[in-house]
Amino acid sequence: MKKLIVFGAAFAAVGFALAEVTAYKDASRSVDERVEDLLSRMTFEEKIGQIGQFLPAYQKGVESADSSKKPFSDELLQRVREGRIGSLIGAPGLENRTRVQKAALESRLGIPVIFGHDMIHGCTVTTPIPLAQSCAWDPDLWRRTAEMTALSARLKGCDWTFAPMMDIARDARWGRIAEGAGQDPYLCSLWSVAQVRGFQGDDVADGFHLAACAKHFVGYGAGEGGRDYDAVEMSEGTFRDIYLPPFASAVKAGVLTVMPAFHSFNGVPCAVNRWLLTDVLRGELGFAGFTISDWEAIAECDLEGHGVGDGPVELGAMALNAGMDMSMVDAYYEKGLKAALAEGRTTMKEIDEAVRRVLSVKMRIGLFDRPFVDEEAVKAKIDIKKDLAVAREAAVRSCVLLKNEKSVLPLARGAKVSLLGKLADDADHMQGCWSSFYEVQENATLRQGLEAAGFAVSFDAGYAVDASADVVVAVFGEGAWESGEAHSRSYIGLKPDQLAAVDAIKATGKPFVAVVFSGRPLAIPELAEKADAVLEGWFLGSCAGEAVADILSGAAEPSGRLTVDFPRTTGACPMYYNRLPTGRPSQVGGGMVNCYIDSEIPTPLYPFGFGLSYSEIAYSDESVAVTDDAVVFTATVANKGDRPAVETVQAYVRDLVGVVSRPKRELKGFEKVSLAPGESKKVVVSVPRERLVYHAGAEKMSATGKMHGWIASDSISGKRLEFVLK
Ligand code: NOJ
Known about the structure:
By secondary structure, this protein is an alpha/beta fold. It is built from 20 helices and 25 strands. The strands form seven sheets. The protein has a six-stranded mixed beta sheet with strand order 11-16-15-14-12-13, sandwiched between helices.
């Protein structure tokens, strides 16, 4: 009997232990419950493992340019088995991923590894660079391109993308202007929400989506001189009104991770900036996911870098205490936190909090319950034809027609085209700055696109015009790697051979169409003056050639609108439409002027919001009415031409009397409207009063008093309306 009781007790204990062991693995429990249970079982080393993201190590002697085809090393798998790796950077490929995940499940607690990588504008099919896509002014399109990227990224073994970038970019010299949605906080907020929704889907744990990452928190685009990684000094009002809103919107949309930026913000590097990472991001915005440092950004705070700390012990503690949950690549947490804890620089509470946040996201994206990618299910969902159709639609809608005189565009059917410039027959550059995974090899170049559209094309990679041609289509711009990370430029004009070509082509007297491929707004006054038509084609991805041919041939209508100002010269940077006014005139001849004496025209060459259709669009009956909760703009918009058009009707305001000086114009809403030839429509853009708030320092102010408003086709034109807000 005694024996039986002892046996029974032991059995009960085992049963109890079993129930306890499985608590965090039990999908029916809440995420919080599961995480707390898991956390309570973890050793210090296991906790530190979870808050580190590492570079994979590969087996020696197995070479392949495609890292997903190189097997991970046994040492790496062993570290995973020991529970010392929470995350790996890169797209490992499914074989590697499966091996790692199996090793992770063999570890003491079986915590899966999360794989993060930059899946930015497409994966196997490339969509246009973000700056290009932003010109479509269409959140639904942005959601779809992100969703398609997420799905094919699953097949590369990714759980998590370091996207969307939502940095406001006002300086065309900054190479990373290519990676975001331009210069306007309202538009960029819509972009950030749409992309987060696309990447994360309605159910981020369904096996077909990715965790998104809002980056780079915050103000990264405001680096001095347009140089990458440079220091940022900014007023709190500008921070809150311009740079913070896209992140606030992404947090509201449920973004699961945030990447603090490299730069120092008012002297304190973002990586160790407690005010930014804890007070603002978590306290004010309510962010509940985890933060990941940018690549070695904690280590870059060291003596040779920002110089605010000395080594992993001090800096590991500083970053962790500031609210940085995971370190990318530099292993500063692994190297420093044990000693930091012993020296009292940080606490177990801080470490637990970071681990808790990482584990929660892992749970929320379903990693614990579905650690392996269901290859068949993902493949069954991928429809490459559909992806290419989305990529082509996005590419067409990203193009911005900047000039079209003498109706040189669309090209006459079957015209003989003298196609010039090496980018006209190049598919690689068209993929843009984040495109290491594209697999669709049959990307058409512009040359092939035009040929497929029925034009007789004679091509010259230089700029030698074919004398027998009816029209010249000449391609200008820069290569894909002249924008993007660490690719800022101190000169953004055309290159010498291109400038010479502009004059030579003009001298032929032939109709002259200029197509520009670039990752930034270039300063192109020569094209504006001498070409008959100018089309900005950015880098449009897998379908660049077909899409530009669609526009040039008239198979599709141009409908893109700029999301950045085009400066006339490099020296005009930073240039952005929503700048503050001054008390002095901005036009040469006005006396003590607020403009350059050697660049008479203070306005941009092409302003934010600008873009032409093949039809002429006219505005009339513009009016504004104020209701209790909205400012309502109305106009009649007419298509005066003989082609269908999509007009982006934009509403701008200027608050004339603020507690602090207010921008010359600010976009507050827009509507897209399709117009058949000859059709006119009454268009209403309703702006909620809440959208008009601004900040004087940290204080939120509502707009009151005299206001100006515009319902117009871009940020400098339109009839000025007046209204008063009480
Ligand atoms: C550095 C870049 O700043 C960031 O945007 C990117 O996500 C990481 N590298 C990882 O590749």
